[in-house]
Amino acid sequence: MNLRHSYTFFAPVYDLVVARVSERPRRISLARLPGEGDVLLAGIGSGLDIPHLPCGPRYTGIDLTPAMLRRAEGRARVREDVALHEGDVMALPYGDASFDAVVMHLILAVVPHPERALGEAARVLRPGGRLLILDKFLRPGQRAPLRRAINLLSRRFATRTDVVFEQVLAYCPSLCLERDEPALARGWFRHIELRKCR
Question: How do residues 36-78 score in pLDDT, each as one tens digit?
Fold first, then answer.
């Protein structure tokens, strides 16, 4: 089952499963956005970030799944600063250096090629721009046998549980790590902030 089909199926229940547990970490991450400029919400999903977006920037949200975007549209109706597009975060339809910040909440561990998605985020980010990530990652060398076993099934229809962020970041030499802090589940979910340094 591909991602579009999986998340079309999950769209009606996604918010029930994810909204409450992710609300506080989302707010913490989004509070670090710049006060103005252009911000990309890569993999906006059902739009759970929208209620927590600070006023000032102009937001562009993109997602692969029309069913999830329809839910995001409902949240975006109350704002004039959010535009939504259908598209793939692994092949973004935007020019180089188009955004001052990129937000990737719960998307890098979902896509089949997280290094490609991170590379695309780096490409569309302006020099000095920030990339805010909230997701679940293994640490380098972490055995985590249960998470790796779960991944054999979960990666086929929803999300990966075996992504090592440091391995993904190694594909993107233009990004410099600014912050890496635990967010949820004893640090399995992490707040990561990167800056485009070259």
Answer: 999 999 999 999 999 999 999 999 999 999 999 999 999 999 9
Closest among 39, 100, 44 to 73, alpha carbons compared: 44
Domain 3-196 homologous superfamily, CATH: Vaccinia Virus protein VP39 (3.40.50.150)
Q: What are the residue ranges of helices labelled H in the chain?
A: 3-30, 66-76, 114-124, 145-154, 165-169
Domain range list for the chain:
3-196
Identify the residue whose tokens are 């992504």.
163
Please give the single-letter amino acid code of residue 151: N
pTM of the model: 0.93
CA distance 11 to 53: 21
Distance CA 117, CA 148 (A): 21
